[in-house]
Design brief:
By secondary structure, this protein is α+β, with helices and mostly antiparallel strands. Helices cover 38% and strands 13% of the residues. The strands form 7 sheets. It has a 6-stranded mixed β-sheet with strand order 5-14-15-11-12-13, with helices on both faces. Strands 21-22-23-24-26-25 form a 6-stranded antiparallel barrel.
């Protein structure tokens, strides 16, 4: 909590003593609150002075009543000025207009009787015997806040009475009377609003709702045109009136907060601006309004978030309230007293450290955590113009089978409140919010490499009520705080920071009442719920309280064990039970010792998460699968790197060779023969499993070699190998199991010379050697058996080592070093066959070899992508390129690889074609799951394709184990049914926030920089919202336009999925359509009558307004001569049903066509007519694309913007010696589509 000070303001904290005539008492408040209260006192005094001066009726036109803000040009009178008026009416008119202009209708009032919930406001003006400030709704006379209001009401009433008593000038008197009564009605409206607001606040408190005082009307900082509007206290009137100073200050804030210019650099900038003003002849008063320090500029704008400070333990991450002082620890805590369990010792880590500054020593926190209040952040949001209605809109979307957003999905539509009704639907004027939560670590030093890993953990939330193009903008996201590094909180340690968020979420679940929001001065009740948890696999398991992805219970959605991960039959997967999981988490939480907790965690794989305090939250259903990590960085990366494998040093093959991740020593033929006989002779499956899996069962290396020798799947653990062997044995019941040929001669290999005992157990008689000699013997023995050392190396070893190696093999240990070495060599040649060297042309394990990658890279140079899609690096796959981003993997797997691999392998037979089909199943499945609209057909097709992909991968790559990400991909269909399309529940928006945090200027000291991250990011977000105002004045507009152009630049190619793009347009140019285009235009108009304006009778002319670009559904399309790569489109003719490939030649609007329709002139490409050639790509449906002739076919069409389907990736390639063009549709909203063809996967 911030330090408290004593406030004696008259407006809020002190009480008026009528007997003494003075104010007494006060309250403890924060420094910021006291500052606001003092401003209220000053304003109240100004209004009081104004009332006194107006009441004197001695008005001086030039003085403007002596106030800093004038009444306007009072010398310009109304229609009364057309006649010669009496001095009395002239004075009354000036006073009435002045009072209406300055009526204090934006002031919190204090009633003599507190408003009660069941008492409606009764308009005093509706009563015939109206008396100012009387009755039930009278204001307290002794409160200074009411004085100006009461005086104004009394004086306007007196004016009305006085005007009624006059007899001359009846028309003018009636007009003035109406004006005065209008002023009284305005004041009564404000009085009613204040009564309702305070009554609603009382009701909210009685109902147990949290109340947030968001204040009353002040000047908006957002509308930089300096017009008074109604907002709330976050938009306090602090900015100067002088436009020049405003522009200078906004420029400094932008450079400091958004573009990360350091404080010292902005001080130089401010000094330069002051010099510029001076050189331009500005007066000293104007120059002095521009501060010398950017911190003073920050204080003029209300950009600071409402935060709480905490000391954080560097070891256990426990939090303790921090008052903000660093000079002492009086009344505080020196060491961390946190105990994880009742029997655990206290952490006892020092929380403070000594620092030196300016020659003095003081105590400072070792780690400090800043938490931004969620309630206050939402209050700032609701103060923005249009936001409350924007938040209400999605709650009542009509039901649909085509889910375009999470609001169409069952998870929100079926979400219930405590009363059993829908939480979001039919809630009237209440605002119901849906939040998503993310926690993610990032490197605070951005691209700076360090010898050790350094990480900070940020906690974010997004408001799902925002439209999809606004949802993940930096200015619209909530940053709870950044947990200090350099390490990460483990297991439940993140609960300390997360509990602060959960506490406020519980308040939102019960209800939070905001006293004032935009367009609702009487306040509004707001409820909210955090539903989807959107994280990578590691963070999701930590926040839900589950064990890691490599533990026994590795899945967050089912109870399948890691040993059964290769089971693809979903019907056999045991489901998680919510009640049982929460009970196990509570059991872990309530354990009395660390040992009990460890035992509980080992048994159930669950620990306590504070998210379970949310009564509505389901950790099984609401922990979603992030498509970025699961698909792009998971499935695509895994398939290329681990399944196919990449090697740029040699040509690629078919991936037939078996190469385990680790070398598996081969047992002797005797051992293999013995276990094969057991497998063959076991009477049933149960007995065989008992023999292989028992305590003296078959070693894993033996199982693995049996699988490899018999072409059985060899991936997975011991249990999985046993299952594979049992399945093979059951399938081979009619075929005798053959034993190794050398097994017939048992004398060839002594019983005590098994390969595995020598290589892995190293059972050598080395009792006479020192320990280091034994290590050397073990290493030498392994290399000897693997044929990696020969006679020359053995002859250099010590005689004692050679003798030990001979004795272990029952060989004579006498003779010279050379004789011993020769004896060992002869034994090895007789007993251990030399590993076979791969012959030239034999199969290699890597599929993506040098030849394939070079073909892909070559096609990439001839591929034209739209501007919103970032291309992959030209040398991806090489060590020089290094790590790829999620977006790059997405482009590689959905664009570049399909284009090239279909060309290379699509006409082949055998394994290469099957490799292609298997990969295209994966590519198509991920594209279906990533669509921005989802239907049941999308889900069914995805589940079928991803299952076929995994089944095929298991068969074709027997040595590649399934990873947790493969298992999770089979659950993705369930989440598509529950949450709809993935774009509302994925992490790129949060990752971009990470990037913004990492690019800020800090002192590079862990423990301090995290607070800088939080404060700077929140200030920058608040500033960015101000800068996106649509109502800025003309002198600020060029600055805002420049900022918007820069902020819309996309460096990583991920933003289009989350935002709509509306390019800045150059003014349309007058143009005349060519005759044949004009004819097509007329044909379109005649065929679609709804296009023409109904009120325009003039004949249709070829004169049009030509555009360079147009935004269709938030995607930029351009004509060919302006931006060729954005002109490639898939389209349909008006009324047509087949997709066509074309290029935009012209974009125009016509005065004869309704304004919302833009027309395009498109040149069509002719599809290759040869069905064999075209079918090579078309067999893979939407993921394969089309082959076209490279030149346009001469046909032109005039189409509507609604006839455009999507962009396509354009690639010029050579097919059979002929140059063709490939068009790959990039459609994220497919409804009618074709999936890759069915095929049969044979056993290899």
């Amino acid at each position: 909590m911030p330090p408290l000070v004593f406030c004696t303001c008259r407006s809020h904290c002190s009480q008026y003593d009528a007997e003494r005539g003075t104010y007494t008492g006060g309250q403890l408040v924060s420094r910021a609150t006291r500052y606001q209260h003092r401003k209220d006192d000053i304003r109240s005094k100004d209004l009081g002075n104004f009332a006194t001066e107006v009441a004197s009726a001695i008005l001086d036109e030039g003085s403007h009543l002596g106030l800093s803000r004038g009444l306007g040009d009072l010398s310009t009178l109304s229609s009364l000025a057309t006649e010669i008026l009496s001095q009395e009416l002239l004075t009354i008119e000036r006073e009435v207009h002045g009072r209406i202009t300055w009526a204090p209708t934006d002031w919190a009032l204090v009633f003599a009787i507190d408003p009660v919930p069941d008492q409606d406001f009764e308009d005093p003006l509706s009563v015939p015997s109206y008396i100012p400030n009387s009755g039930l709704h009278a204001l307290r006379l002794s409160h200074q806040r009411n004085l100006a209001f009461i005086e104004n009401e009394n004086r306007l009433f007196e004016v009305v009475l006085h005007l009624n008593s006059l007899t001359n000038h009846p028309e003018q008197r009636e007009a003035l009377t109406d004006v005065a009564i209008t002023g009284l009605q305005t004041m009564m409206y404000h009085k009613r609003r204040e009564w309702d607001r305070q009554r609603n606040e009382t009701t909210a408190i009685e109902n147990g709702f949290a109340v947030v005082h968001t204040g009353l009307t002040t000047q908006s900082l957002v509308k930089l045109s300096f017009v008074d509007v109604r907002t709330e206290e976050y938009l306090e009137d602090r900015i100067p009136r002088e436009p020049t100073i405003v522009v200078a200050m906004l420029t400094v804030l932008l450079m400091h907060l958004v573009f990360h210019l350091s404080r010292r650099a902005t001080m130089v900038m401010l000094a330069g601006m002051r010099c510029m003003l001076s050189s331009l002849g500005a007066n000293r008063e104007l120059i002095d309004q521009l501060p010398n320090d950017p911190r003073s500029v920050l204080n003029r704008f209300n950009l600071d978030p409402r935060c709480s400070s905490f000391l954080q333990c560097p070891v256990c991450y426990a939090l303790y309230p921090y008052s903000g002082t660093i000079t002492s620890v009086t009344g505080g805590i020196n060491r961390c007293p946190y105990k994880s369990t009742p029997s655990s010792p206290p952490c006892n880590t020092p929380l403070w450290e000594e620092r030196r500054s300016g020659g003095s020593t003081f105590l400072a926190p070792r780690r400090k955590y800043i938490h931004q209040s969620l309630k206050e952040w939402v209050g700032r949001l609701l103060a923005r113009p249009g936001i409350p209605e924007l938040f209400r809109e999605p709650c009542n979307r009509p039901p649909t089978t085509v889910m375009g957003d999470i609001w169409d999905a069952p998870v929100l539509r079926n979400f219930k409140d405590v009363d059993g009704r829908s939480f979001f639907r039919d809630r009237g004027n209440e605002i119901r919010l849906a939040f998503s939560l993310n926690a993610d670590g990032f490197n605070p030093f951005h691209m700076i490499e360090a010898k050790q890993s350094v990480s900070c953990t940020a906690i974010y939330m997004a408001v799902l009520n925002f439209p999809e193009h606004l949802r993940f903008l930096f200015r619209n996201m909530y940053l709870a705080g950044v947990i200090p590094g350099p390490g990460k909180p483990s297991l439940d340690q993140i609960n300390h920071a997360l509990s602060l968020v959960v506490a406020e979420l519980l308040e939102f679940w019960r209800g939070v009442y905001y006293t004032v929001i935009f367009a609702s001065p009487s306040g509004c009740l707001t409820k909210g719920a955090m539903i989807p948890l959107i994280c990578d696999m590691l963070s999701a398991r930590q926040l839900t309280g589950l064990s890691s992805a490599t533990s026994t219970l590795f899945c967050t959605f089912c109870l399948l064990t890691i040993q059964d991960i290769e089971n693809l039959d979903k019907s056999t997967w045991p489901a998680r039970d919510l009640v049982a999981q929460i009970e196990h988490a509570k059991l872990w939480r309530d354990s009395s010792s660390e040992a009990d907790r460890d035992a509980c965690f080992k048994a159930h794989g669950v620990h306590w998460s504070v998210l379970l305090d949310l009564p509505y939250w389901n950790p099984i259903l609401f922990s979603v699968i992030d498509s970025m990590h699961a698909a792009h960085l998971g499935l695509f990366h895994s398939h290329c790197r681990k399944v196919w494998r990449i090697d740029v040093s040699a040509d690629g093959g078919e991936g037939m060779a078996i190469q385990p991740a680790k070398d598996v020593p081969r047992p002797s033929d005797r051992t293999l023969s013995r276990w094969l006989a057991i497998i063959r002779d076991s009477p049933d499956t149960t007995a065989l499993r008992r023999s292989l899996m028992g305590s003296d069962g078959c070693p894993k290396d033996v199982l693995w070699h049996i699988c490899v020798d018999n072409k059985i799947r060899s991936a997975g653990g011991r249990r999985q190998l046993v299952d594979n062997i049992i399945g093979w044995r059951n399938r081979a019941e009619t075929t005798p199991i053959e034993l190794p040929a050398c097994a017939a001669s048992s004398s060839q290999t002594p019983d005590n010379s098994d390969f595995e005992s020598i290589a892995s157990e190293s059972s050598l008689d080395a009792s006479s050697l020192q320990f280091r000699e034994k290590e050397k013997i073990d290493k030498t023995n392994k290399l000897f058996i693997e044929h990696k050392i020969g006679k020359s190396t053995l002859k250099r070893l010590k005689v004692a080592i050679l003798q030990t190696m001979c004795r272990s093999r029952s060989l004579d240990d006498g003779g010279t070093r050379e004789a011993l070495a020769m004896r060992l060599i002869n034994w090895r040649e007789s007993n251990i066959p030399r590993p076979r060297e791969p012959e030239p042309g034999t199969e290699t394990r890597e599929v993506l070899g040098r030849d394939v990658l070079e073909a892909v890279w070559d096609d990439m140079t001839r591929t034209e992508l739209p501007s919103w899609m970032s291309p992959a690096p030209r040398n991806w796959g090489t060590a020089a390129r290094g790590k790829l981003t999620a977006d790059q993997w997405k482009v590689i797997a959905t664009v570049h690889l399909p284009i090239t691999l279909i060309r290379l392998w699509g006409t082949k037979e055998g394994r290469h074609l099957l490799l292609l089909c298997n990969f295209m199943d994966l590519s198509a499945a991920v594209q279906l799951a990533s669509q921005r609209i989802i239907t049941q057909k999308h889900i069914d097709d995805y589940e079928r394709l991803i299952l076929r992909y995994l089944q095929g991968m298991k068969v074709m790559f027997k040595d590649t184990p399934l990873q947790p990400i493969h298992h999770v991909s089979l659950h993705a269909g369930e989440f598509l049914k529950l949450f709809g399309p993935t774009h509302p529940v994925r992490t790129p928006g949060f990752e971009r926030f990470n990037e913004r945090l990492g690019s800020q200027n800090t002192n590079m000291k862990s423990g301090d920089l995290e607070a800088t991250f939080t404060m700077t990011a929140c200030r920058a977000a608040n500033l960015e919202w101000m800068m996106h105002s649509e109502n800025a004045s003309d002198h600020i507009r060029p600055l805002l336009d420049a900022f918007l152009r820069v902020s819309n630049e996309d460096h990583r190619g991920t933003r289009l999925a989350d935002e709509n793009h509306f390019p800045p347009q150059k003014p349309p140019q007058n143009a005349t359509l060519e005759p044949h285009i004009y004819k097509l235009f007329l044909t379109l108009i005649s065929g679609v009558p709804s296009l023409t304006r109904s009120n325009l009778l003039a004949p249709i002319t070829p004169n049009v307004l030509e555009l360079e670009k147009v935004s269709i559904s938030g995607v930029i399309y351009a004509r060919e001569k302006s931006l060729p790569r954005d002109s490639n489109i898939i389209f349909r003719r008006p009324g047509g049903s087949s997709d066509r490939v074309g290029r935009i030649k012209q974009i125009f609007r016509s005065e004869h066509v309704v304004s919302e329709v833009t027309l395009l002139v498109v040149a069509q490409y002719r599809l290759v007519s040869d069905p064999t050639v075209q079918g090579t790509y078309r067999r893979f449906g939407f993921a394969g694309g089309y082959l076209c002739d490279p030149g346009e076919d001469g046909r032109r069409y005039v189409i509507r913007s609604t006839d455009v389907i999507c962009h396509f990736a354009r690639t010029v390639l050579v097919w059979g010696g002929e140059t063709l063009m490939h068009a790959l549709p990039l459609n994220s909203k497919m409804i009618d589509y074709q999936v890759p063809m069915d095929y049969t996967i044979p056993e290899f």
